[in-house]
Each structure stands twice: as structure tokens, then as C-alpha cells.
């Protein structure tokens, strides 16, 4: 006779086998609570996670990770970058649903939230350049649209709501300092201003709203994704030096933390699965200490693979951001450490480039970079 293990046992003791016994036991208790209090009233067998902006660079590997782990995924995304191909492979999956809609459209989001247990907010205009180029669209989406969306989350009996924010919020800090979650925020762009506002909005819900909110301040992403972005440092430098383009590097000595997109999928899933008491209205820097790099360190790491490639350092760039980040909280409270180093991400991307992936880069810039928009507000 065979004995089936329950979903709670699977999540606690199989999917999280690397965690300490006591933590796995807490997760087991949490999963059973969710089954009784969240799934049963909705008539669901599994948690259904709404990924808002789930068709993007980070959202697509996250989708694959969650589906493989047995979650139902519903994605709401406006496909702003002609990125429908990124979700095509998921469309036939029995546990996947896609809704093409604007997060600023209250009617559409209201419908998308029906029957959902948890929400991860990734959507928005991402990055300083695109928000600077399209300030009105930024206002409609990142400020008003997302603020309205967050306002509408209370009173639905949701389990967890995770707001994906950015370490860019630290802005500019001295080289000898590591920013932990309590370090003063100094947003230097429209993009970071809106992120700080959404963080405050979520955290302001503590003791007021009926869900467990968490803010994740992400390092800068690298790694392969079906919605590849080449407007991010590691991938941009690797592609440029691979293709023989003269790479111009502004402010080479400025620091940033980096993190692989698959590690972000693991970190977000960890928040979904940890007991609410550990993540409730907490902020976590998401990444790992070893992946704090200067731009020069990244250039050196890529150049080793292409010694003939050319680059030049240029002083006086317009981007003042400089921040090294402390990731001890996510390590100690969530037992999270990234699996991928920047060097591994570079090797992974070079292997793909060598096989001809992304050779349509020049023809598909609006797909590979967050730079052009055709957005009509609702
Ligand atoms: N990529 C990074 O380096 C990085 C670093 C820190 C934080 N983050 C955060 O992670 C999240 C995801 O970033 P990403 O790199 O995957 O970005 P992305 O631009 O690849 O993905 C964003 C997705 O949101 C969708 N979207 C945009 N506006 C929308 C709207 N009004 N309605 C519905 N969908 C909309 C886009 O179509 C896209 O698929 C963002 O919140 C970003 O701020 C990213």
C-alpha cells in the first residue's frame, strides 16, 4: 500500500528540505492553517497566486518556479513590451491563467482578484530611464494605478501580499557603509519615489488590513529569462563585450547589489511559504552580500572571457546611485542565500549568446529594453 503525502507535508518537508527542522515544522503548521482558513472557504485545492506584471523579466522565471512547485498562477499583465511570447509556453498549463489588463483598471483587477489567495506585485514601468522618458505614464501606472490597486486589496481575505520594491531606494550612500533595511531611503528618481510610496502604503496597512503584507527590496537582476532585458548592467555589459561593441561605462566605481532572476523566484516563494509571523509587514533586502559589485568589477568579470573586447570608463555620468546592501536579515530570518553568483550569470548568458540566442537584439530593441511605450491610460 502506498501512502500519499499531503500538500502541506510536500511544501514543508520536501520543497523546503534544506531548512532547519524547526522552520519546516512551522511551515507545516502554516500550510495546514492556510488549507483550513484560506483554501477551504474558496473551494481550492492549491494556493492561487496572482502575479501582477508576471509576463516580465522577473515574472516569467517566477511563473515557471511556482507552477513547478504546484501553485496555481494567474497572471495579469498589459504586455507593454510586446512580450506575449514570454507567456505562450504557460498558456496550455492546467494551473495557469492569463489576463491581459492594466493594473490601473479597477474593474479588471477586481475580476482578477476573484478566487485568488495571494498576490505578488511586479507590474509597473521599471527603471529610471523609462519613467524619466514617460512621466505622465509613470504617474498613471506607478503612482495612481498601483496605489489604487493596493487600496483595493483589503477586505478580500487574501493571505499574503508581496510588494516588489528596489534597493535603488537607498540612492547614494558612502562606500564604507552597508544599507540594511533601516537605512534612510534617498530615492533619486521618479521610479524610486513611487517605489518608496508603495512601500509606505503597504507597511501603513499593518494592524489595519486583513492580509499579511511584505516588502521585498530587490537587488538589480541578472540571469536568463524568456523576457530578457539588456538594459540591466550585467546583461548589457556581457552582450556588448560579446558582440564587439565598444562598451562605455559611466561611474565605474559605483556599487550595486545584483541577484539572479531564479534566486528572486526562490526568495518570493520563501516569503509565500514562511509563517506570517516571520514576514508580516516586514521589509527584506533581497539578494546576497557576495553579489555587491562595482560596475568595474562586472566589466573585469566579463572581459576575462573576451580579452580582445573594448571598453572605456567615462566620468561624470548622470546616475548618482551608489549603494552596497546588507542582506543579513533575509539570510537569518528567511534562511535565504542566493544560489547564483554574478560570475555564473555571466557564464550562463555567454553560453546562450554563443548559440545565437538574442541575435535579433537590434531589430527588437523595444522587447529587450524598457525604453519605448505605447500606453493608453484607462
Ligand atoms: N529588474 C531589476 O533589476 C529589478 C530590480 C529591483 C526591483 N525590480 C522590480 O521587480 C519588478 C519586475 O521587474 P522586471 O525587471 O521583471 O520588469 P519588466 O519591465 O520586465 O516587467 C514588468 C511587467 O509589468 C507589465 N506592466 C507594466 N505596466 C503595467 C500595467 N499598467 N498593467 C499591467 N502590467 C503592466 C509589463 O508588461 C511587464 O511584463 C518591478 O516591480 C521592479 O521594480 C526589478
Small-molecule binders: nicotinamide-adenine-dinucleotide
Annotated CATH architecture of the domain at 46-222 and 260-290 and 325-339 = 3-Layer(aba) Sandwich
Report Rg.
20 Å
**Extended strand count:** 14
Share of helical residues: 25-40%
CATH superfamily of the domain at 46-222 and 260-290 and 325-339, please?
NAD(P)-binding Rossmann-like Domain
Please tally the helical runs, counting DSSP H or I stretches of 4 or more residues.
Answer: 15
Plain-language structure description:
The protein has a domain at 46-222 and 260-290 and 325-339: Rossmann fold (3-Layer(aba) Sandwich). 40% of the residues lie in helices and 17% in strands. It has helices at residues 7-15, 21-42, 59-68, 88-91, 106-112, 128-133, 135-151, 190-203, 233-243, 261-273, 276-279, 295-303, 328-334, 342-354, 365-368, and strands at residues 48-52, 72-77, 96-100, 118-121, 160-166, 178-179, 212-218, 220-222, 247-250, 255-260, 282-286, 292-294, 311-314, 324-325. Strands 3-2-1-4-5-7-11 form a seven-stranded parallel sheet, sandwiched between helices. Strands 8-10-12 form a three-stranded mixed sheet. Strand 2 (72-77), helix 4 and strand 3 form a beta-alpha-beta unit. Helix 9 packs parallel to helix 12. The radius of gyration is 20 Å and the shape is globular. 44% of the residues are buried. Nicotinamide-adenine-dinucleotide binds next to helix 7, strand 5 and strand 8. Nicotinamide-adenine-dinucleotide (NAD) is lined by residues 53, 55-59, 77-81, 83, 102-104, 122-126, 141, 145, 164, 166, 218, 220-221, 227, 229, 232, 370.
Amino acid at each position: 500500500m502506498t501512502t500519499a503525502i499531503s500538500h502541506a507535508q510536500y511544501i514543508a518537508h520536501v520543497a523546503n528540505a534544506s531548512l532547519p527542522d524547526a522552520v519546516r515544522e512551522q511551515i507545516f503548521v502554516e500550510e495546514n492553517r492556510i488549507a483550513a482558513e484560506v483554501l477551504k472557504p474558496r473551494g481550492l485545492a492549491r494556493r492561487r497566486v496572482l502575479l501582477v506584471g508576471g509576463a516580465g523579466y522577473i515574472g516569467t522565471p517566477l511563473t515557471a518556479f511556482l507552477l513547478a512547485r504546484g501553485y496555481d498562477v494567474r497572471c495579469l499583465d498589459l504586455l507593454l513590451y510586446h512580450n506575449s511570447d514570454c507567456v505562450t509556453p504557460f498558456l496550455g498549463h492546467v494551473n495557469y491563467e492569463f489576463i491581459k489588463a492594466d493594473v490601473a483598471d479597477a474593474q479588471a483587477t477586481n475580476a482578477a482578484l476573484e478566487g485568488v489567495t495571494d498576490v505578488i506585485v511586479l507590474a509597473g514601468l521599471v527603471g529610471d530611464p523609462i519613467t524619466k522618458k514617460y512621466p505622465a505614464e509613470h504617474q498613471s501606472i506607478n503612482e495612481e494605478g498601483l496605489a489604487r490597486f493596493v487600496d483595493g486589496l483589503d477586505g478580500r481575505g487574501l493571505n499574503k501580499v508581496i510588494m516588489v520594491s528596489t534597493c535603488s531606494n537607498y540612492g547614494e550612500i558612502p562606500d564604507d557603509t552597508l544599507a540594511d533595511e533601516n537605512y534612510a531611503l534617498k530615492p533619486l528618481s521618479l521610479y524610486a519615489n513611487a517605489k518608496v510610496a508603495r512601500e509606505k502604503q503597504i507597511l501603513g496597512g499593518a494592524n489595519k488590513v486583513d492580509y499579511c503584507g511584505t516588502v521585498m527590496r530587490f537587488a538589480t537582476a541578472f540571469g536568463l529569462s524568456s523576457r530578457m532585458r539588456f538594459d540591466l548592467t550585467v546583461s548589457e555589459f556581457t552582450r556588448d563585450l560579446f558582440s564587439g561593441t565598444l562598451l562605455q561605462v559611466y561611474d565605474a566605481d559605483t556599487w550595486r547589489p545584483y541577484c539572479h532572476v531564479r534566486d528572486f523566484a526562490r526568495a518570493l516563494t520563501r516569503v509565500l511559504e514562511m509563517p506570517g509571523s516571520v514576514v508580516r509587514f516586514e521589509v527584506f533586502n533581497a539578494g546576497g552580500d557576495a553579489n555587491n559589485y562595482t560596475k568595474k568589477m562586472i566589466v573585469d568579470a566579463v572581459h576575462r572571457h573576451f580579452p580582445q573586447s573594448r571598453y572605456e570608463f567615462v566620468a561624470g555620468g548622470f546616475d548618482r546611485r551608489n549603494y552596497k546592501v546588507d542582506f543579513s536579515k533575509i539570510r537569518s530570518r528567511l534562511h535565504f542565500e542566493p544560489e547564483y553568483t554574478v560570475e555564473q550569470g555571466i557564464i550562463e548568458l555567454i553560453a546562450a549568446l554563443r548559440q545565437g540566442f538574442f541575435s535579433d537584439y537590434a531589430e527588437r530593441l523595444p522587447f529587450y529594453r524598457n525604453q519605448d511605450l505605447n500606453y493608453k491610460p484607462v
